[in-house]
UniProtKB/TrEMBL annotation, chain A:
<keyword id="KW-0408">Iron</keyword>
<dbReference type="GO" id="GO:0046872">
    <property type="term" value="F:metal ion binding"/>
</dbReference>
<feature type="binding site">
    <location>
        <position position="347"/>
    </location>
    <ligand>
        <name>[4Fe-4S] cluster</name>
    </ligand>
</feature>
<dbReference type="InterPro" id="IPR004430">
    <property type="entry name" value="3-IsopropMal_deHydase_lsu"/>
</dbReference>
<dbReference type="InterPro" id="IPR018136">
    <property type="entry name" value="Aconitase_4Fe-4S_BS"/>
</dbReference>
<keyword id="KW-0100">Branched-chain amino acid biosynthesis</keyword>
<keyword id="KW-0479">Metal-binding</keyword>
<keyword id="KW-0411">Iron-sulfur</keyword>
<feature type="binding site">
    <location>
        <position position="407"/>
    </location>
    <ligand>
        <name>[4Fe-4S] cluster</name>
    </ligand>
</feature>
UniProtKB/TrEMBL annotation, chain B:
<keyword id="KW-0456">Lyase</keyword>
<dbReference type="GO" id="GO:0009316">
    <property type="term" value="C:3-isopropylmalate dehydratase complex"/>
</dbReference>
<comment type="function">
    <text>Catalyzes the isomerization between 2-isopropylmalate and 3-isopropylmalate, via the formation of 2-isopropylmaleate.</text>
</comment>
<dbReference type="InterPro" id="IPR033940">
    <property type="entry name" value="IPMI_Swivel"/>
</dbReference>
<dbReference type="GO" id="GO:0009098">
    <property type="term" value="P:L-leucine biosynthetic process"/>
</dbReference>
<dbReference type="GO" id="GO:0003861">
    <property type="term" value="F:3-isopropylmalate dehydratase activity"/>
</dbReference>
<comment type="subunit">
    <text>Heterodimer of LeuC and LeuD.</text>
</comment>
<keyword id="KW-0432">Leucine biosynthesis</keyword>
<comment type="similarity">
    <text>Belongs to the LeuD family. LeuD type 1 subfamily.</text>
</comment>
Length: 466, 201
């Protein structure tokens, strides 16, 4: 029977499938960070259980680390306890940890792929919803809760129900300056923040296939923002080239076998999806969110929507509530919206290509008066590469702050956060109320759009001179 | 896990769609290393006017005197979207909620709730609206949720059926330890591992 990519990976991971029970599937790689793991380790300890395969688990610290100092003294007392708890737990249970002093430390979804921990065709989980990122490699990757983290630690498996399948085709080629972030925001704008609920989405079409691995990670990262269980992109020559020679990539004979096996990881021609969505890449302009969820998206040449135009009462109520929170009026042109903060970073957009795109806007220019802009590389390795290319100097000369790796202002668990009333151009993934700080407003954009907004002091259409 | 068989209790409603886990439990409360004590911070930014949580927001439904002691939450579609933080069901359960009734839930939240004995119930838009209307109309209105019969009973006695996956229902009814159950299949897991290709080891 013809199968989709998801069905192939799913079928290859079934350990047990009994009548009347959710199937038990095998987990190949488990990523761990400080915030969602302590209670799982405690649970193991309380039950006297060991980890089944600690060598398949990789830990880092990213959520509440400081981007200003690599010292534990820079952390709040509770954050420090959480970070130290991860150190102790990894030592006790034999888990490899990249702590804040290690050059490989970084955002868990940046670190995993760049070290070759993320493997095509594997099942990858982490106590973090943006685990969807790893689907860019044709892996089945999804976020789990802490009880499930403990289940994976003890058994290397999970109970899972099979999801429905959705194909999202982005046809043709995007215009110059249109990035993976614009593509995925346009998709979420089209299907809504719960349009993918219950589905595993496969992204395909020329515009997806022509993306680099970093661009594909940006797209899959935000699969969760459309509610999808996971997002996947079929591995191809771009994937194989990316995997070659990374620290944990297969080597020797195992590599040859891997490349042969990965070639099978495509959706069969006559496979049937439960739903299909089609977008034309050529129609996509730079995107940004205007509201308080990632589905509340508009093109840069658009305006803030009018709730009166919405027929559905629940949606109308959501728009009204969002407009009140973000303090914008219907009909306002997005290019007239001023900002006072800019954040370039997060597991969505903190890789080297993201920093290059932002630096291209920043080069030889200055951050607008009254705007504070920070650039937070996704990992120690990204930071090192950016500095080797002189990107740090470009940012610093333009008035951006150049920081240490971490999740930073994406979720503001650390000391990077917005104040009430702040309006931020952010390359992160969520514009929920209070996400970046109580009473603050977030507009999700691409790295180039964020850098340009920081320079102009308001959102600009980067396709035109500004 | 705490078992769930049936529950009858005072209902409270949050009449909004897409309530995300950042609202349910904001990030500043995620630094704890234990599972307890999150209830006081539930819906913090909506529930309190100040950062310290000293001034309750009188306009937020959970603070209405008529809903004090509520144990069933009625809300709109896509409840629990966003972050995978299990702190969300921990906070809801610690606050005293036993069941959440909505037209739809985000996937990760749905699973996390079941793993904590907090029952997520999917009803249709129309049924949820009827429950909200009845609860609104009558102070002290209680809703019953029966996991054995798979029914929800409204304050007026109207009964609605719901569905839940068989093994999740079984585990909830019996308060079973999911890890303990899976460890019963350790031989099958080992057999699977023995067949892994070299590049996955």
């Amino acid at each position: 029977m013809a199968k989709t990519l998801y069905e192939k990976v799913w079928d290859a991971h079934i350990v047990i499938e009994n009548e009347g029970e959710a199937p038990l599937i095998y987990v190949d790689r488990h990523l761990v960070h400080e915030v969602t793991s302590p209670q799982a380790f405690s649970g193991l300890r309380a039950a006297g259980r060991k980890m089944r395969a600690p060598e398949k688990t990789f830990a880092t610290m990213d959520h509440n680390t400081s981007t200003k100092s690599a010292s534990l003294d820079a952390l709040s007392p509770m954050a420090r306890i959480q970070v130290e708890t991860l150190q102790d737990n990894c030592k006790e249970f034999g888990v490899r940890l990249y702590d804040i002093h290690h050059k490989n430390q970084g955002i868990v979804h940046v670190m995993g792929p760049e070290l070759g921990i993320t493997i095509p065709g594997s099942v990858i989980v982490c106590g973090d919803s943006h685990t969807a990122t790893h689907g860019a490699f044709g892996a089945l990757a999804f976020g789990i809760g802490t009880s499930e983290v403990e289940h994976v630690m003890a058994t290397q498996t999970l109970r899972q129900l099979k999801a429905k399948t959705m194909k999202i085709v982005v046809r043709g080629h995007a215009a110059a300056g249109i990035t993976a972030k614009d593509i995925v925001l346009a998709i979420i704008g089209k299907i809504g923040m719960d349009g993918g609920t219950g589905y595993v989405v496969e992204f395909c079409g020329e515009a997806i296939e022509s993306l680099t691995m970093e661009g594909r990670m940006t797209v899959c990262n935000m699969a969760i923002e459309m509610g999808a269980k996971a997002g996947m992109i079929a591995p191809d020559a771009t994937t194989v080239e990316y995997m070659q020679g990374r620290e944990f990539s297969p080597k020797g004979e195992a590599w040859d076998q891997a490349v042969a096996d990965w070639a099978e990881l495509t959706t069969d021609e006559d496979a049937v999806f439960d739903a299909t969505v089609v977008l034309e890449a050529g129609d996509i302009a730079p995107q940004l969110t205007w509201g308080t969820n990632p589905g509340q998206v508009v093109a840069i040449d658009g305006v803030v929507p009018n709730p009166a135009d919405e027929q559905n009462a629940t949606v109308r109520h959501s728009i009204e509530k969002a407009l009140k929170y973000v303090d914008l009026s219907a009909g306002t042109r997005m290019t007239d919206v001023s900002i006072n903060k800019a954040f370039i970073g997060s597991c969505t957009n903190s890789r080297i290509e993201d920093l290059r795109a932002a630096a291209a806007q920043a080069k030889g220019r200055k951050v607008a008066a009254g705007v504070i802009a920070i650039v937070v590389p996704g990992s120690g390795l990204v930071k090192e590469q950016a500095e080797a290319e002189g990107l740090d100097k470009i940012f610093i000369d333009a008035g951006f702050e150049w920081r240490l790796p971490g999740c930073s202002m994406c979720l503001a668990m650390n000391d990077d956060r917005l104040e009430a009333g702040d309006r931020c151009a952010s390359t992160s993934n969520r514009n929920f109320e209070g996400r970046q700080g109580r009473g603050s407003r977030t507009h999700l954009v691409s790295p180039a759009m964020a850098a340009a907004a920081a320079i102009a002091g308001h959102f600009v259409d980067i396709r035109k001179p500004y | 896990m705490n078992p769930f068989t049936s529950h009858t209790g005072l209902a409270v409603m949050i009449d909004s769609a897409n309530v995300d886990t950042d609202q349910i439990i904001p990030k500043q409360f995620l630094s704890k290393v234990t599972r307890d004590g999150f209830g006081v911070h539930l819906f913090h930014d909506w529930r309190y006017l100040d950062e310290a949580g000293d001034q309750p927001n009188p306009e937020f439904s959970l603070n209405f005197p008529r809903y004090k002691g509520a144990s069933v939450l009625l809300t709109k579609e896509n409840f629990g979207c966003g972050s995978s933080r299990e702190h969300a069901p921990w906070a809801l359960a610690d606050f005293g909620l036993r069941a959440i009734i909505a037209p739809s839930f985000a996937d990760i939240f749905y699973g996390n709730s079941i793993n904590n004995g907090l029952l997520p119930v999917r009803l249709t838009d129309v049924e949820v609206q009827q429950l909200m209307d009845e609860v609104e109309a009558q102070e002290g209105a209680e809703i019953s949720v029966d996991l054995e019969a798979l029914t929800v009973t409204s304050p007026s006695g109207a009964t609605f059926s719901f569905e839940i996956e068989t093994s999740a229902r079984h585990n909830l009814l019996n308060g079973l330890d999911a890890i303990g159950l899976t460890l019963g299949y350790v031989d099958q897991i080992a057999a699977y591992e023995a067949k892994l290709p070299s590049w996955k080891l």
